[in-house]
Amino acid sequence: MKTGIESIGFYSPQYCFDLRKLAAERGVDGDKYIHGIGQSYMAVPPIDEDVVTMGANAAREAIEKVDASAIDAVIFATESGVDQSKSGAVYIHRLLNLPSTCKVVEMKQACAAGTMGVLSALGMIALNPKSKILLIASDIARYGLNTAGEPTSGAGAIAMVLSANPVIMELDYRHGTYAADVMDFWRPNYMDEALVDGKYSIRVYLKALTEAWKDYARSTDRTFDDHDRFCYHLPFTRMGIKAHSYLYKHCGDSVLDEASLPAQVDASLRYNRLTGNLYTGSAYVALLSLLESPDEQLAGKRVALFSYGSGCLGIFYSGVVQADYRQYLPANQHKTMLEQRSELGYEQYVSMYSTRLPIDGSEFMANKHRTGHYRLAGVCAHKRIYESTN
Ligand code: COA
After folding, report:
1. Helix (H, G, I), strand (E, B) or coil at 133
2. Which of 55, 207, 249, 257 has the largest count of CB atoms under 10 Å?
3. Ligand 1 within 6 A of 148 CB?
4. DSSP string, 148-176
């Protein structure tokens, strides 16, 4: 039985900020952000969008063309959750009118939670082939104004229906793993911005990549050259390029010339370069960017996926793109969504970034901004109030 991706939805906020403008404000050479880090824009969520509304928008698109009554679980992966107890999945379950027989849960292990959700879904489908699982990875990456991480900020959500009808991509459950207790990136409960030791995190990422690869190669007997394309977790897009070159050298058995490496990753970097980091969704936005690239013919090609969640967990696995995959992807919609964003000036960026929900439990009604189909109307009696915009 084949299992994998039946549909994909993607959402990123309607506001963005140009990293060349940020560089000018920070007194940094713009080429550092554009080329050294590999980011052109960051997506900026207004106060009335959060991981629930972004996730609901992505999920709405993912379930548009599938039989939603067959969805029997919503797995919500995030590291910017809105509640310590209630899962984001249950809000989205209501916003999308999913069946009451559907299970709901939230998963966390930094940016690797999306892949843990995928593997869990594949296991559930193996036990019940009629099952369709809605996996949503939604995050807001906030690093703080004037910090080294600031140019890698971003936001958005990706949703996939995983099932035994994987018309987009068959996923192989066999995977390689590396876990270790490290402090490279974390966010204590009392903070809404992440703490990160960026240089250390890059080193741990690369170690997790090679260790997870070894475990994967052992369980599948595959070599580097058995994979046509590679999608990496992208805290910033240069990380994908660094990771790919590092893995190639580590494997050391490829017949390919080093000059052919960019062609194996470049198409996967396009969307993340425009949105910034999406944490749990980042590797899957990279996959979508690859699949929707007009220059790629991917039918029958094996794509490797590497997820890295700081703290840390690395997971390496792969899948095969299906023959008619293009007809199931709303590529033009995504292109339009990214092209039609409103570009913020620096003052607007700082103001939008600095506007926060009250943390003392007082009531709050959010100003209306450009949003998707759902928005956070406010907080009343400690309850978040979500509403549809149409
Ligand atoms: N033109 C082109 N490239 C330039 C440049 C210029 N004018 N100036 C610097 N660069 C390059 C540097 O050489 C470096 O490239 P290299 O890594 O290949 O050597 C790159 O730009 C970044 O420069 P660096 O000095 O290392 O940047 P930094 O100290 O500002 O930190 C990050 C960069 C990515 C570490 C930082 O933004 C960060 O911590 N981001 C968060 C990452 C994260 O979330 N990690 C956890 C999850 S995986």
Report:
1. strand
2. 55
3. yes
4. TTGGG-EEEEEEEEEES--SSEEEEEEEE
